Amino acid sequence: MKFQASATSILDWSGDGLAIGLFDNQLELSGELAALDGKLGGLVKEVIAEAEFKGQPGNLATTRVAGAGFRKLILVGLGKVEDLKPEGLRRAASAAARAARREKCGSLGLALAVGNQAADVAAQAIAEGVELALYKDHRFKSEKDETKPVDEVHLLGMAGQEGAIDRAQKIASGVFLARELVAAPANYVTPISMAQTAQDLAKEYGLELKILEQAECEALGMGAFLGVAMASDLPPKFIHLIYKPQGTPRKKLAIIGKGLTFDSGGYNLKVGASSIEMMKTDMGGAGATFGAAKAIAQIKPDVEVHFISAVTENMVSGRGMHPGDILTASNGKTIEINNTDAEGRLTLADALVYADKLGVDGMIDLATLTGACVVALGDDIAGLWSPNDALAKGFEAAAEAAGEKLWRMPMEERYFESMKSPLADMKNTGSRAGGAISASVFLKQFVKDTPWMHLDVAGPVWTDKEIAYNSVGATGYGVRSLVQWVLG
Ligand code: BES
Ligand code: MN
Ligand code: ZN
């Protein structure tokens, strides 16, 4: 996709499709819009009337134009000026881009008003919306995608915003990596392929990389991670990518992603309605972590960032852990496994202990951790847990700006009581009620010194319906908020 930040007016632009954003009180048309309507012989007003176009978010109207420098006119609703936020622009831009593709427009002129937003924030959101909406995953189709692509987008009235557009494209490339990793099934994305992906990222973008093989994980005492990995025929990979800025970093951060390339449940096999066939998405946290690494390595902020994932798959085998086994994590704590399907928290336990020792100023884990979080918040909203208000608030603000939905949940220590074990320090699951909360309290046992936040992304890493710029499938959830958080 080629973007151009252009000073051209909607009256002078020529290309295939011109998309114009209209506020809901602007349908009378004035200024350039009125002039365009005049140039087109009153067509804009006609379309507004015929399509019952109200200028609301989600309103869209398209028409054929003759005798202008372009052949399709696309109207997009922006809602009320005072309500317009970056996410509104992202969605309006994505609606315009999708309409342009439907109408076979190779080039699109995009003139969305920016309302009260700063020009760079607006340009970034618009470019993100276009990129994210036009993404297509054709890797597993045997026939070539013949759809005519939108390959040139001119952001009209946004001259000078090349930097913001460039940032949007770097972020989008990270979102695409996360989508590709999550969408690819477990016979393509494996612990070995994840290590290879990390190696490719390190090489292409100059990141440092450490991959701890099984023996090194054993030496570090990572019994919880390795307990899960035991049943797999594939070697576990503990992956640690590092982005270091030139000069002294302003701060140091860590991002940790749950990296189960498949979750069968183990001996507590996923049966019935537990969607075992969707468990290729159980590395969504690692996908977001790698996606953030890809974006951040290109944006090059003055912040040191560690990207970590303990990658394996949760399988069934004679070598697998038995329900009832007791594992020892790398901080010495012992865990009685009363459910082999609560495996993510085991892999994260050792990853958190490892990250805690890096001396970073803050760390965030992202995990497709519990079905209970999906029950609580639905498919579109992630759950946030943190004992640290400043960290939680900072990330909430980043996610708001990035347009990713989340909700802060209570870190109810008392629920840990249901995880007490008569034999070991704890069990790995507590009562079914509040299962997403007890999971986060379990994780907390493996954090000592570092300000920490946990994000349960079991719902939003995947969507079964098209929502704005997310098509059916993997969403790449988390990448945009993480990047925004690191830059902030
Ligand atoms: N990977 C699953 C959580 C999950 C469920 C992700 C649905 C996406 C959609 C996790 O490993 C798991 O199996 N959690 C169990 C925990 C339970 C055994 C306490 C769950 O949620 O059922
Ligand atoms: Mn599981
Ligand atoms: Zn899992």
Helix content: 25-40%
- Estimate the global geometry from the Cα principal axes: elongated
Report the span from N to C terminus. 27 Å
Return the CATH class of the largest domain: Alpha Beta
Overall pLDDT confidence: 98
- Overall SS class: alpha/beta
CATH architecture of the largest domain: 3-Layer(aba) Sandwich
Strand content: 15-25%
CATH T-level fold name of the largest domain: Aminopeptidase
- The radius of gyration is 24 Å
Query: What compounds are bound to the protein?
Result: ligand BES, manganese (II) ion, zinc ion
CATH H level, superfamily name of the largest domain: Zn peptidases
Number of strands: 20
Enumerate the spans where pLDDT stays under 50 for 5 or more consecutive residues.
none
What is the domain tally? 2
Q: Total helix count? A: 14
Characterize the biggest β-sheet.
Answer: 9 strands, mixed
Summarize the structure in words.
Helices cover 35% and strands 20% of the residues. The chain is α/β, with parallel strands linked by helices and 488 residues long. The chain folds into two domains: 2-141 and 150-157, Leucine Aminopeptidase, subunit E, domain 1 (3-Layer(aba) Sandwich), CATH 3.40.220.10; 170-487, Zn peptidases (Aminopeptidase), CATH 3.40.630. Strands 7, 8, 9, 10, 11, 14, 15, 16 and 18 form a nine-stranded mixed sheet that branches. The chain has a six-stranded mixed sheet with strand order 1-6-5-2-4-3, sandwiched between helices. Strands 12-13-17 form a three-stranded mixed sheet. Helix 9 links the parallel strand 10 and strand 11 (304-314). It is elongated and about 80 Å long. The two termini are 27 Å apart. 51% of the residues are buried. The mean pLDDT is 98. Bound molecules: ligand BES, manganese (II) ion and zinc ion. Zinc ion binds next to strand 10.
